[in-house]
Specification:
The structure holds 2 protein chains of 2 kinds. By secondary structure, chain A is an all-alpha fold. Chain A contains 6 helices and no strands. By secondary structure, chain B is an alpha+beta fold. Chain B is 50% helix and 18% strand. In chain B, strands 1, 2, 3, 4 and 5 form a 5-stranded antiparallel sheet that branches. A 4-stranded antiparallel sheet of chain B has the order 7-8-6-9. The chains are: A mainly alpha, B alpha+beta. Chains A and B meet through helix 1, helix 2, helix 3, helix 4 and helix 6 of A and helix 1, strand 1, helix 3, helix 4 and strand 4 of B.
């Protein structure tokens, strides 16, 4: 095996040295999501683990991915809902988006009217 | 008969709505993620486990009074399984932080295990701990470190974290039960290495490249336009620029992946990583793993270098990491093992 490209200090050859500097995202996406799955003696429902680690999965993958997996804890998680500013952020965003959309529509309408000025008036 | 305005409106409305919606979803996504991360950070700051800092790493945890559990919850030790190797491979590897990695052998196979307290790694403990990012990071890094050591000694089949047996008999029984599937997995992985490739690019660089390549005839088109017409033209051009940048990104990822995939034994494309965790800058266009013949690894480095040069104009960054334990190239479900 020629030179290791894991930015882990593995080649430093310090016995027992863990891979402190390897990108955590690289490790988590592998150990959480990959590797052979075998049911051990400790009966952990793998589905449970999927659900329990969803918050961590969010750190790895995207919200879209979580949605694809049918997970939407944030929509019902009271502590997140009540977390400082979250609701405000969301409402603010929705409001801003609504306003922008309305503004866009008004602008498009005006432009459309301007362009359509030479057209015959609406037949009704 | 529909007049021009109605047709125009009908044509444009779905697109406008879709775009506004996409923008809203993007914003919402960012806000939610920020909230989730903030909670994670808050949870980590909470001094619920005063002894956490001095606590030894998970893989070296020894039997003894659990640090944050009522003593009654203690139920002895379990065996955390790291990976499977052939029994003929080097018999000993160093553990993490001086801990011991033991081998349980059966039927020509061996599973590497470490002792863990069930108070922390039992069902209840895991349920709680898996949601603690600090805990998970420690365990994940320890798991990875042991696998890397084992990998240096021979072919391994990585196990997903949290595979825990009550004793040696349980681990040995698993080896016997899954013998043929594990043999197959080991055979597939013999003499091959997993390498990771991530492609990132800055959106601004892509859009600049798209602008350079687009015909610059806006001024010509703007001539004689009303203010409204000019506005629409500009908007259309912005949209076309975004689309052209998207196409460049897609082509870039496709080219890099196609070249490597053609050449590798096997390939797996994963979701782009979250920048909050990985710390990468720009857009991650490709996050893939390739299974490569060990003899061809040198060529892999050359190939990546060629791709870097070929796409340097677009500001593409290609990161190559490995060799990794072959997490991405083993069967992932119980049924695949049956």
């Amino acid at each position: 095996m020629e030179g290791s490209y894991l930015p882990s200090g593995r080649s430093a050859g310090l016995p027992g040295r863990p891979t402190e500097s390897t990108n955590l995202a690289d490790i988590l996406e592998r150990v959480l999501d990959k590797g052979i799955v075998i049911a051990g003696d400790i009966q952990i429902n793998l589905l449970d683990i999927e659900l329990l680690t969803i918050k961590l999965r969010l750190l790895i993958a995207s919200v879209d991915r979580a949605r694809e997996m049918g997970i939407n804890w944030w929509e019902t998680d009271p502590s997140l809902q009540s977390a400082e500013g979250d609701n405000g952020d969301r409402e603010e965003l929705e409001k801003e988006n609504r306003e922008l959309r309305e503004r866009l529509e008004r602008l498009e309408q005006r432009v459309g009217l301007e362009q359509g000025r030479e057209e015959p008036s609406r037949a009704g | 008969m529909l007049d021009e305005l109605d047709r125009w409106a009908a044509r444009r409305a779905p697109e406008l709505l879709a775009r506004a919606e996409a923008e809203a979803v993007e914003d919402l996504k960012r806000a939610l993620l920020k909230a989730a991360l903030r909670r994670e950070a808050q949870a980590r700051r909470e001094p619920v486990r005063p002894a956490a800092a001095e606590r030894p790493a998970a893989a070296e945890a020894r039997p003894g009074p659990p640090l944050h559990e009522p003593a009654a919850a203690s139920a002895g030790d379990g065996l955390w399984a790291y990976c499977i190797t052939r029994a003929s491979d080097p018999p000993r590897i160093d553990g993490v932080h001086g801990s011991t990695v033991e081998r349980v052998e059966s039927d020509g196979l061996a599973v590497l295990v470490g002792r863990v307290p069930l108070s922390e790694f039992g069902e209840d403990g895991l349920r709680r701990n898996l949601n603690d990012l600090d805990w998970l990071e420690r365990v994940a890094r320890d798991h990875e470190a042991v696998l890397e050591r084992a990998l240096a000694g021979g072919t391994i089949v990585p196990l997903r974290i949290c595979t825990i047996f009550t004793d040696e008999e349980g681990a040995a029984a698993m080896l016997t039960e899954r013998r043929s599937a594990l043999d197959t997995a080991l055979d597939v992985l013999d003499g091959r290495e997993e390498w990771g490739v991530k492609l990132t690019v800055d959106r601004a660089a892509l859009e600049a490249a798209a602008r350079d390549r687009a015909p610059d005839d806006l001024d010509q088109q703007l001539e004689g336009q009303s203010a409204g017409g000019a506005y629409m033209l500009r908007r259309r051009q912005e949209r076309q620029l975004r689309e052209a940048a998207d196409r460049l990104a897609g082509g870039l990822a496709e080219d890099v992946h196609a070249r490597l995939q053609d050449w590798a034994t096997d390939a797996v494309v994963n979701s782009p990583q979250n920048p909050e965790l990985s710390g990468h800058e720009g857009d991650m266009l490709l996050n893939a793993a390739y299974l490569v013949e060990a003899a061809k690894v040198e060529r892999l480095h050359e190939l990546v270098e060629e791709l870097r040069e070929r796409h340097s104009e677009l500001g593409a960054r290609i990161e190559l990491t490995g060799p990794w334990p072959p997490y991405n190239f083993v069967p992932r479900t119980e049924s695949a093992l049956a």
